[in-house]
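Appendix C reproduces, verbatim, an entry submitted by the partner laboratory led by Prof. M.T., so that reviewers can inspect both the input and the predicted structure.
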Amino acid sequence: MCFAFDAHPPDLPADLALPTLAGGAAAELLELTSADGTRFSAALAEAPEASGPGVVVLPDVRGLYRFYVELAERFVQAGHHAIAIDYFGRTAGTGERGEDFEYMPHVMQTRVEQVQADVAAAIAALRDRTDASSIATVGFCFGGTQSFMAATSAELDLDGAVGFYAGLVPRREGAPKPIEHARETRCPILGLFGGTDENITPDHIAAYERGLQEAGVEHEIVTYPGAPHSFFDRSFSEHAEACEDAWRRVLGFLQNVGTSLAL
């Protein structure tokens, strides 16, 4: 389990929120169609004053629920178009997921290539509805793993990928294996981890970073001492400094991606 169902994303640092967008922009719930004909849900938040890459938000194991809709709206406050997607259109239909959603049977049926097809459809929607030309993924837990895997895809051709507490070794049959694919990464990477996360060990993180280094991939890996899995939660006042630092790193990373593309 990641966040409590009633959790909320941490607020942006005050100096990073655009004053004219302090209230954010309400996300629109969409149904998109993947390459295999699957209909799936997404939440699109458009920034009137976009100044950087569009963001595809990849949720944790529970798919599209309120936390990630709000997170897309937070990115708008920082000047980024954002779209959050659901993973389970093939097995659970469409719609925002509720607290009683039994997600694990559906997680077990996901495959990397299907998630990437859904990401491709979300990117197409971003480009159709907004002026986003460059694209980065930002994922959490299961979504962090998928973000790192998406960074290896020539078809997606991402400009950057962020993973919060991404699982790096498989824990089930058919699960993604970011460590094994690190050398295939095609874009800059930002990895953010909790120092007390028992399921993502320092050895895992070091092995993933080693693969990125060997491939010459631009990257930054940060571990927050004392922070647990899913520390990026407004209710965790004891981890407020880690949350603020994570926001600054993510938005700085996106700015750098946008700047390097403009050169």
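The longest helix spans residues 240-262. Additional entries are available on request from the coordinating office.
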